[in-house]
Amino acid sequence: MINEKYYAPFVQGLREVLGNFQLSNVQVGKITSKPCLSSAEEVNIHVGIIKEIQGSITYSMNYDVAKNIVSLMMGGMEVQNFDEISKSAVCEFANMTSGHCAFQLGRLGKTVDITPPTLIHGKNLYMMLSRVETTEIEVLTSLGKICVNVCMETGI
Amino acid sequence: MEKTELIDILNAFISSSIEIIEQTTGIEMHKGKIEKRSGCLEASGVVTILDLVGKEKGKVLLNMPIDTAKAIASRINEEELEDMDERVLFALTELTNMISGGVITTINNKYRDFSLRLTPPGVFWGESVEISSTNFNVLSITMTSEVGNIGVNVGFQGVNL
Q1: How far out from the chain centre does Cα A113 lie?
Q2: Helices in chain A by DSSP H: which ranges?
Q3: A132: distance to nearest CA of chain B, Å?
Q4: Which residues in chain A are contacts of B117 at CB distance < 8 A?
Q5: Do B151 and A146 form a contact (C-beta atoms < 8 A)?
């Protein structure tokens, strides 16, 4: 499993971004290690990490949670369909969160850059983004469960 | 990035895909027509994806039907793979790695200021999958072969097509 000091920035990033939208009740659930970065959730936002650390972050959730996040970002407006605005909003959410993580990793002495987020969504979806050991962090919020998958291939 | 540079990069990926697939599987690929798409790519079947990062940020996606993926993976592994298991996914990831490895050197030699680097490839599959990324314009080509079609899609942020 990745050392806590390297995965803590990801939880912190999520906390800070959700906090900026006035959502403070963010709990960390189970933290598990799995042999590869895989997900069978409906909505996955993938962000690559490069430079001193090479790896990937994936935020996985179901459609309801994704719509709840979009609703939160839009000031509580009801979101019924996962449309173009919603897709753009969840990508921006992942971008902001990963940006915070990159900053925090910089404070640990690791200069990293992030790639633009890619949204992969669909029913009956299975993805495997890396064959490197991955730490899956369950983040429990009032919006629902968000799984943060962190894998670092080199640099730690 | 200019449109001509994106076309150059796409062409490098097409040549490399044809060469590597033929070398590793013996399957002959034929080029189709180049099309442009914006924002998202809808695909069913198997998709491999990798990010290109440097002066410009981009993505490369290869998409193919599940049967084509299994056929290619079977040839690479030299055994019949009937299920969509990890061996198929690993084979496709490795194929994407091989295709992109050579291309990056070619592009960086030609456009030195790009300094492109690759992230490790990922692969996913599903009945109906949509991949989207904001502000991305994509050039796509479908290549045909005896085992099915393979799409090569290359996109960079902020390129006007």
Answers
A1: 15
A2: 4-20, 63-73, 84-107
A3: 10
A4: 50
A5: no
Q: Give yes or no for B138 touching A (CB within 8 A).
A: no
Shortest CA gap A20–chain B (Å): 22
* Interchain CB distance below 8 Å, A118 and B49: yes
> Which two structure tokens, joined as six digits, stand for A88?
């753009």
pLDDT in tens, B115-150: 888 887 888 888 788 888 877 788 899 999 999 999
ipTM score of complex = 0.79
- CA A144 to chain CA mean position, Å: 14
For residue B78, count CB atoms less than 10 angstroms from its CB and return exposed for 0-12, middle for 13-18, buried for 19 or more. Answer: exposed
At A46, list the tokens.
């993938």
CA-to-CA distance for B88 and A144, rounded, in angstroms?
A: 33
Specify the pTM.
Answer: 0.85
Q: Judging by DSSP bridges, how do beta strands A54-61 and A43-51 pair with one another?
A: antiparallel
* Contact between residue A82 and residue A121 where contact means Cβ atoms under 8 Å apart: yes
On whether any CB of chain B is under 8 Å from the CB of A63, the answer is no
Residue B146 token pair:
């005896």
* Contact assignment for B122 to A130 by CB distance below 8 Å: yes
Asked if the Cβ–Cβ distance from A126 to B126 is below 8 Å, we say: yes
